From TrEMBL:
Taxonomic lineage from the root: Bacteria, Bacillati, Actinomycetota, Actinomycetes, Micrococcales
Keyword Transcription in record: no
Protein name: Theronine dehydrogenase Zn-dependent dehydrogenase
Domain Alcohol dehydrogenase-like N-terminal: 24-143
InterPro entries noted in UniProt: ADH-like_C, ADH-like_N, ADH_Zn_CS, GroES-like_sf, NAD(P)-bd_dom_sf
Source domain of life: Bacteria
Keyword tags: Metal-binding, Oxidoreductase, Zinc
Family (UniProt): Belongs to the zinc-containing alcohol dehydrogenase family.
One Pfam family from the record: ADH_zinc_N
Amino acid sequence: MKAVVVHGAGDLRVDDLPDPTPARDEVLVAMEWGGVCGSDLAYWRNARSGTAVLRHPMVLGHEVAGRVVKLGADVTGLEVGRPVTFQPAQLVGDGAMPPRLAGRTNLYPAVRYFGSAAFDPHTDGGFCELRAVRAAQVRPLPEGVSTRRGALAEPLAVAIHAVGRVDVAGRTVLVNGCGPIGALVVAAAKHAGAAQVLAADVAASSLAVARAMGADEVVDVSAGPLPDDVEIVFEASGVPAALGAVLHATAKGGTLVQVGNLPGTEATAVLGELVTREITWMGSYRFSEEIDDAITALADGLDVDPLMTHTFDIDDAEEALRVAADRSTGSSKVMLRLGGDA
């Protein structure tokens, strides 16, 4: 089978790997679609993503969907031909959490994740023609949700988790940074009942995607400041230099949810108004079981189509990553066609 494998910094190959065989508790899935994520780009560019360092070749991809083609001997409740996506996280160990973190499995200390080098051996991802997956991680897609859209259930779950950190119903929300996650936060906030969603970015193409995803107003911050006194702000750019302006845009006593990944190294940022405006600043990391909420939202009509700006075949995976990494291309979510007719 073909698989998109990162071998080192700047070294991405479409390798021919042996077809997998499902274990008793696994299903074999013919993969159809994958979305390129920032962590995929990080492994390709730098052979690392955050603290996870690439030590061996690894199949990329955690935003994926496909169809079941074979069941392991002990698998029930799934059938061949069923379109599916995945909960890409697998807890390592007994899964026990302290009471204060009950249900917050995204904060469990040891998690294997599709396409992650956090463990050695690494956990291969789903940018391949076939993958054996634990049945417990498989999520069936309902009628009307294609595998192309279903591949975006994972990043949508990230956005739904972030929006769920605060009650947005009936309130005005600002999203700073309209890359794929920011645009999905826009859609998730509207889906959760936000009265008005403002979206800010420096790129016209990103603002156009945000508007298509449901933003009521867009703000080009290359031409002017962020709006003032917004009660709930989602910071999705992950740019430390933006934090001062984002804190200033947050209303006194308001809430700032940090969903964009900040660097793990020292960075300069203006943070004084965090104190003087008594702002609540909270982080948002991945998701717990919001993958199920994301699938339901897709079935209910949340439209992710405007996000998917470019499509490439698996053989052109390196070009797909180049386009995803270059904002001048106007790309938002770049999709890989991994197989099938979807």
